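Structure request: 1,2-phenylacetyl-CoA epoxidase subunit A, Nocardioides furvisabuli.
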Amino acid sequence: MTTSDTATDAQLSALETRFEDTIARSERIEPRDWMPEGYRKTLVRQIAQHAHSEIIGMQPEGNWITRAPSLRRKAILLAKVQDEAGHGLYLYSAAETLGVSRGELTEMLIEGRQKYSSIFNYPTLSYADVGTIGWLVDGAAICNQVPLCRTSYGPYGRAMIRVCKEESFHQRQGYELLMTMMQGTDEQRAMVQESVDRFWWPALMMFGPPDEDSPNTAQSMAWGIKRNTNDDLRQRFVDMSVPQAEALGVTFPDPDLKWNAERGHHDFGEPDWEEFMQVVKGNGPCNAQRIAHRRAAHEDGAWVREAALAFADRQREAARA
Ligand code: BYC
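Returned structure:
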């Protein structure tokens, strides 16, 4: 039942109470349950942004499939990029349970009316970037997404469980690739360090703006959509990554990064939030290229969608006859 149905004030207040109680008990809201319009809109925004990120995220890594250094690396990269497509599809399906279609969401993406993660607007300049994306970008994604397995909206949380399992494999393949390169030549080690230097700050920006500048966090946490704030997850990611960098033999490009025994966490420098805002507004190094590519793929696929619809119509008619 939605608010547009002719519910009396008393019925509406009973529905609201039931919704609030479900959230308070940390139980799940399911597609047919009543939900406030703001909750639905927030979920559509976040799930669509997440789905778009998975699909646009195929581009920077897909760039290297034809130039992988060995058959083994090519097979791993192909599997990973295919997994990202799958994640996009689970997420679009989760969004569809909220009354929007994948077609509408794709239109909104290519018209610039919906966002995708800032990280995918940076270029991949060497094969080491495939490893760094796996280690740091998928690592940041896991940090952000494991708590989302407990998000209050059922279809989103269930999609996240499978996504996180696959992201763990992605993270490990990235780390293993970098470890292999670090055991190679000086030139390979330099490639890894150069790649980590470029991706460290953009990876920290994936968690979103600082909490005091995050307009959505408080309400999303009250509704149990988000389980942690942007800054909490960013800190968790830094603490997790520092020992991994040490084991790998690389450094992060942050002179302020050091262990703070009192806090029991690492202190670290401030990302360039002006750069983040520019990238989110569409002015990053690859924004125009990413959207142009996505638009072309969508337009090139029009005949497939038309053929599938015509086939479905014909089958329906045959069944009727
Ligand atoms: N990039 O109030 P805030 C992956 C926007 S991983 C662009 O804190 P919220 C993958 C935000 O949308 C990446 N925009 O927002 C990995 C909002 O704008 P609007 C995808 C960003 O939603 C490897 C405004 O800034 N992961 O897919 O409470 C390979 C204010 O922010 C960013 C997810 O999407 C950003 N980094 O918190 C392949 C995870 N950060 O919409 C693929 C799910 C913020 O109000 N999403 N904005 O105009 C989330 O957890 C949350 O949406 C965020 C932001 C933590 C990202």
